[in-house]
Structure formats: structure tokens, C-alpha cells
Amino acid sequence: MATCILCRHSSKDIAPDGLCQECDLVHLETDLIYHMYESNAVEDWAREFVRELEAVFRRDRRAARFFEAANEVILVSLRGRFAGGVPIRELRTLRHRTSGDVSQIMAILETAKIAAVVGDRIVLGDLGKTFADLVPAGVPLTDESVRAPAEEMRGAICVALSKALIGAYEAGDDVGRPRNYVLLMKRLGRHVIREVDLPGPINATVPDDDFFECDPRQVVQVSIQQRERLLADLVGLGGGAPRIVASLRQRTGGHFEITLKDSVVAFLERVRERERERRRERARG
After folding, report:
1. pLDDT reported for residue 83
2. With contact defined as beta carbons under 8 Å apart, do 128 and 77 qualify?
3. Local structure of 61: helix, strand or coil
4. Range with the lowest mean pLDDT among 82-86, 197-201, 221-225, 257-261?
5. Measuring CA to CA, how many Å separate 64 from each of 50, 171, 178, 250?
């Protein structure tokens, strides 16, 4: 059996590109959103779904440093204090790190098109500018009207960083995977795989087994405790607003029935549509 280059699960069904079926869907899901922001043609359903991802790096200690740096660079750039880019020494997330750490973080931010180092300063890349533009100008950042675009900005940062980190990891770089992101998108992709040949709308209800009670070899080396914390975050018991999950209903035997948010179902509909297109393209040769 071969081993998936992303989740490291061994299976006889690994594709020639080295990915299992679920991780192939992770790429599809990520690219679908990333290219919308890259082309500055983001549809409303994508904006709504991206907001559900805004905290996905929070409990991912190794990946969080990339998010914290990207988020700070964009926020400091929004303040407009520095012409020609932000000096590295002005960034709390970078100024006390080693030069090696800074280089690794900035390499990922540059690959993600969020920001790049120019001399002793950091300037926003094309996507960094797009993300910064999501926050309305002239409005206090504490205003309620800023909440949704700020969540979208943070979620879009997570997608862009995940694309860059996944690419680097699969290429053999020692940056680590965005494990919670990969786990979550694998589980959503699993639902698409189950529903890809079924008619009608995608079912909004999924068993909690899909997310938290699976074969541990298939959950990207995320411990049971980490999965429980992720579940708490998804249903709003981890200190923030509920994410991904609209409701959680207890079943017999200590299991739960998960109902996905409308924004998530709309996203999965688009992913299923694109996956069907890919299968038709492959069938045509």
C-alpha cells in the first residue's frame, strides 16, 4: 500500500499524484476559494463559508505563527503609519524571532501572495492587499459593521496560508501541515464523496463519526483531545462563536448528529459540482 503525501494514511487507493481521495478534495476545496480571491471575483457563498474558517489556526500551535504574522502585517499596513512597507522591528510577531524563523515565515507568506520582504521592510503582496481591502475604510475597527469583513479577512488568510503550507509540506519542506485545516477540509470532503453521485441537494446532516471518531490513522495525527477541542470550537463551546455546525443533537450511545450551517452546505454544493465536472473530464480522457 502507498502512503498519502498529505495526511500520511496508507491505502491501496492512493492516486498517482500521491494523494488519497479525501486529500485530493482538500486541494480542490482550497483551490476553489483561493483562486476566487486571487482573481478578485469572490462569490457571496464563498465569502460566507470563508468566515467559518477564521479561527481554524487558533489551536494549531505550529501553524499559528504564520497566521499571526500575516494578520499583524495586514492590520499594521491598514493603519498606514509606514510608507514603503512595515519595518520588521515594528511587528510583535516577528521582532523577537530568529532570522531563520523569520525567513521561514516570510517564505510562506510570499508563496501565499500575502506579503514579502523588501530590504528591511515587509510589503503586502497582491492577496494581502485584497484581504486588507475587505475591511471598510473610515470605519472604527470596533464597529459591528466591521465584524463580518474582518472574519472574512481572517478566514481568507487561513485559506491562502493553508495552500502555501500544504504545497511546502508535500514538497518536503519542514514547515508542518496546517493540521486542523486539513482535518476539517478532509471531513467536509468525505461528505462530498458520499453525496457526489446522489441526486438533489447535499444532506445538511452528518454523523459526528465523520469528524471525531474516525480511524486515528486518517485524522492527520490529531489526538483525541485535540479533536475534542476542535469540536468545542465548532459548536461554540471553545470561547468563540459556533463554526461550521448549526446544531448538535445527541443520539443514543454517546454520539451526536451534526447539522451543518447553510453557508457550509452551499460551499459543499459547489465542491460537489466541481468534482462531478472533474469526473466527467477524466471519463472523456
Report:
1. 78
2. yes
3. helix
4. 221-225
5. 17, 20, 9, 32
Would you state the pLDDT for residue 78? 84
| Sign of the four-CA dihedral 69, 107, 222, 16 | positive
Give the amino acid at 202: I
What is the phi-psi region of residue 261: left when phi exceeds 0, alpha when psi lies from -120 to 50, beta otherwise? Answer: beta
Residue with the three cell numbers 472523456? 284
Number of neighbours of residue 138 by Cβ within 10 angstroms: 4
Model confidence pLDDT, tens digit, residues 160-215: 999 999 999 999 998 989 988 998 899 899 999 999 999 999 999 987 766 655 55
The residues spanned by each domain of the chain are: 1-18+178-285, 61-176
Query: Would strands 245-250 and 121-124 be described as parallel, antiparallel, or unpaired?
Result: unpaired
Dihedral sign for Cα atoms in the order 24, 232, 168, 217:
negative
CB 121 within 8 A of CB 84: yes
- As a residue count, the chain comes to 285
Q: How many CA atoms lie within 13 A of 228 on its CB side?
A: 4
**CA 202 → CA 1, 24, 195, 268, distances in Å?**
32, 19, 7, 7
pTM (predicted TM-score): 0.91
Closest CA to 185 of 155, 153, 151: 155
Q: How far apart are CA 257 and CA 145, in angstroms?
A: 33
Burial of 268 (0-12, 13-18, 19+ CB in 10 A): buried
CA distance 40 to 51: 17
How many CB atoms within 10 Å of residue 107?
17
